[in-house]
Amino acid sequence: MSEIENAPRRTASDVAAFIRENLALLPVPAFPDIVLYTPHPASGLRRLESAVDEDADPCPPYWAYVWGGGAVLVRHIRANPGLVRERRVVDLGSGSGIVGIAAAKAGAASVLAAEVDRNGLAAIALNAAANGVELASTGDDLIAGDPPDADLVLVGDLFYAPDLAGRVLPFLARCVAAGVEVVVGDPFRAHLPLGALHPIAEYSVADFGDSPHAAGTRSAVFQLHT
């Protein structure tokens, strides 16, 4: 049995304390008015992998990084604040909460950050507070159910794996059928369902893993076909 499997189960307050003590609160390079708890080589982030549901496998800490799909949505919200202003927004697969934070800063009526990784939920709460915005959050697997009571669902980078993509797309189609607008940000991951999407904007943004000196990764914003 691994060290992670033997590790004691952390409570939500334990996770929040770990993040505060071991990650650095830093501006996002592309969006310096947004600060996030950010890992660094001495963070020991792998020690949080045990903090998952009892019946689930350990999750990689995707929530700790800004991914291209989230970054491109933030860019698009900054360029088009009317997309979210005075609207009820769901940030699906919220991760660090950066998209929800950008929506709240741009005047969204409300933002629900949906993230199934409970470590991510702790990070979202800390990041929202650090940015002076209010985000509601849920750890429920929304894509297994009915469309949310919302005006807009923002989807940043949820097409990186075939099984997840196969679950996300039918949920988004149900949202559109119920009158909920769906906007997707993605750096053209392998399982992005381009046939179901209409591109509305394209930007070059930093993606996780890019060199600090890279020009950026081609990424786009899409609407789901109605």
Description:
- The N and C termini lie far apart (49 Å).
- The protein has 2 domains: 3-63, no CATH class; 65-224, 3-Layer(aba) Sandwich (Rossmann fold).
- It has 226 residues and is an alpha/beta fold.
- The protein is built from 6 helices and 9 strands, in the order H-H-E-E-H-E-H-E-H-E-E-H-E-E-E.
- A 7-stranded mixed beta sheet has the order 5-4-3-6-7-9-8, sandwiched between helices.
- The longest helix is centred in the C-terminal third of the chain and has 16 residues, at 162-177.
Taken as a percent bin, the fraction of beta residues is 15-25%
| Net shape | globular
Computed structural class: alpha/beta
**CATH H level, superfamily name of the largest domain:** Vaccinia Virus protein VP39
End-to-end Cα distance, whole Å, is 49 Å
Give the neighbour order of strands across the main sheet: 5-4-3-6-7-9-8
Uncertain runs with pLDDT below 50, 5 residues or more? 1-7
Largest sheet: 7 strands, mixed
Q: What is the average per-residue confidence, as pLDDT, rounded to a whole number?
A: 90
CATH class of the largest domain: Alpha Beta
Rounded to the nearest angstrom, the radius of gyration is 17 Å
Summed up, the helix count is 6
Number of strands: 9
Number of domains: 2
